[in-house]
Design goal:
Rossmann fold; 2 domains; about 300 residues; alpha/beta; disordered N terminus; binds NADPH dihydro-nicotinamide-adenine-dinucleotide phosphate; six-stranded parallel beta sheet; single chain
Length: about 300
C-alpha cells in the first residue's frame, strides 16, 4: 500500500490525510484523536481493490472539542461515511439521526453512513469479534460458557452479538463491579428475550469457561485482570481484544494455564469488513488482509 499523502481538500476543523485522493470516488474517513496510527485506510484500500469498489478512504484528525463540526463539514463536502475511533464513539452515537439495534445496545457508534440528510449510526466492533471467534478461530459460542472481562465501550459493543450467538451462560466481570451490574440490568430491560447476563467482580468468577474475552484495557498497561486460574480449562479459548507483535500479557497468562489464545487483530479486520458491507453492500474477504496486517506488526 502507498504511504499516506496530504489530501488537497481542506477541512477547517480537522486535518485530513488521504491514501489515494480521487475526485470521482466515494469518500470515507476514519476519525479519531490521535489517528496517525490507524490501520483502517490500509484495510479499506485492500478491501476496495479486492471488490473493485471505487472509494477514497482517509484519516481525519478531529480536535477533541470539534468532532461534530468535523463530521458535518465532511458531510457538506459529500462524504459518504466514517469510521469512528477513540475518543469519539459516544459523540458519534449522540449525533446519529438513526441507530441500528447493535449500536443502540452498545451505546456507542464506530460506523457512520451519510445519505439524504440522515446520519446512520452503527456499531460493528461486536459482530467483528464474534465473526473472528466463530469463523476464523472456528470456536463455537452456542451452548458454551462465556466470560467477558470489562464493562467499557468494547465490552458493551460485544454483548448483544455474543448473546445472539446463544451461549448457555454469559458472565460479565469487571474491576468496578457496579458497572457490570448496571450494564447487565440495562440489557435485561432493553433485550428481555436474550439470555441474562451474570455480573460479578474478578475474584468471584467460577470457572472453567469455554471462551474468555478480555475487553479490559489492562493489557495496555501490561496488567492481567486478577481472575482465578480455575477459569481456564484445556479447551478454553482466551481472546484478548488487544493485539500486537507479541502475545499480550493476558495471552501469556492464559497460555501458561493451558488455554488456547488469540489476539484482537482479526476483530479489527472483521469490524472493518462489516463497516465496508454497511457502506457498499459488498462483503470483502478478510483472510489475505489479516495475513498482510499480521506480517506488518
Ligand atoms: P474503556 O476505557 O471503555 O474500558 C476499559 C475497561 O477496562 C473497563 O472495564 C475498566 O474497568 C477496565 N480496566 C482498565 N484497566 C484495568 C486494569 N488494570 N485491570 C482490570 N481492568 C481494567 O476501553 P475500551 O472498552 O474502549 O477498550 C478496551 C480494550 O479493547 C482496549 O485494549 C482496546 O484496545 C481494545 N479494543 C480492540 C478493538 C479491536 O478491533 N481489536 C476494538 C475496540 C477496543 P473499570 O470499569 O473498573 O474502570
Amino acid at each position: 500500500m502507498s504511504a499516506p499523502v496530504l489530501n488537497p481538500v481542506a477541512l477547517p476543523a480537522a486535518t485530513l490525510i488521504s491514501e489515494a485522493a480521487s475526485l470521482s470516488a466515494d469518500r470515507y474517513v476514519v476519525i479519531g484523536n490521535p489517528i496517525a496510527h490507524s490501520k483502517s485506510p490500509d484495510i479499506h484500500a485492500r478491501f476496495a481493490l479486492e471488490t473493485a469498489q471505487s472509494i477514497d478512504y482517509a484519516r481525519m484528525l478531529a480536535p477533541l472539542d470539534g468532532f461534530e463540526e468535523a463530521v458535518q463539514e465532511f458531510v457538506r463536502q459529500g462524504g459518504k461515511g466514517a469510521n469512528v475511533t477513540v475518543p469519539f464513539k459516544l459523540a458519534a452515537y449522540a449525533m446519529a439521526t438513526r441507530l441500528t439495534a447493535r449500536a443502540e445496545a452498545a451505546g456507542a457508534v464506530n460506523t457512520l453512513a451519510f445519505s439524504d440528510g440522515e446520519i446512520l449510526g452503527d456499531n460493528t466492533d461486536g459482530i467483528g469479534l464474534v465473526t473472528d471467534i466463530l469463523r476464523n478461530a472456528g470456536t463455537p459460542i452456542a451452548g458454551k460458557r462465556v466470560l467477558l472481562l470489562g464493562a467499557g465501550g468494547a465490552a458493551r459493543g460485544a454483548l448483544l452479538p455474543l448473546l445472539q450467538s446463544r451461549p448457555v451462560q454469559l458472565v460479565l466481570a469487571n474491576r468496578t463491579v457496579a458497572k457490570a451490574q448496571e450494564l447487565a440490568a440495562q440489557f435485561a430491560q432493553k433485550f428481555p428475550k436474550e439470555n441474562t447476563i451474570v455480573p460479578c467482580g474478578f475474584a468471584n468468577v467460577d470457572g472453567p469457561f469455554d471462551l474468555i474475552i478480555n475487553a479490559t484495557s489492562a493489557s495496555l498497561a501490561a496488567e492481567v485482570p486478577p481472575i482465578p486460574v480455575s477459569v481456564f480449562g484445556a479447551r478454553t479459548l482466551a481472546y484478548d481484544m488487544m493485539y500486537g507483535k507479541q502475545a499480550t500479557v493476558f495471552m501469556q497468562f492464559a497460555s501458561a494455564h493451558g488455554a488456547n489464545v488469540r489476539d484482537g487483530l482479526g476483530m479489527l479486520v472483521e469490524q472493518a469488513a462489516e463497516a465496508f458491507f454497511v457502506w457498499r453492500g459488498v462483503r470483502p474477504s478478510t483472510a489475505e488482509v489479516y495475513a498482510a496486517l499480521r506480517a506488518q506488526l
